[in-house]
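It is worth pausing here to work through a concrete case rather than discussing structure prediction in the abstract. The textbook approach is simple: state the sequence, then state the predicted structure, then interpret. We follow exactly that order.
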Amino acid sequence: MDVLFRPPLGWVFLHLLIAALLYLANQAPIFGRPRADKDEPGAPFTQHVRAYGKLLERTGDRAYVDHLLAEHTRRSR
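Step two, the predicted structure:
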């Protein structure tokens, strides 16, 4: 146990202890407003597609939407 308090291992031990304490402080629960739930993977993309679909629906131009879908299908193959 004495070896932990002699240089240079003492300094290494001290740095590891500080790093561990910082990690634990970062992971500790907070008091106050709770953290926001993390979105499921791909949720931002799904929201983007829905918003884009709503915008296309507002245009009322079915031929343009069909053209965009055909173009996307052609490019993705």
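Step three, interpretation. Residues 2-28+48-76 form one domain. The chain has one domain: 2-28+48-76.
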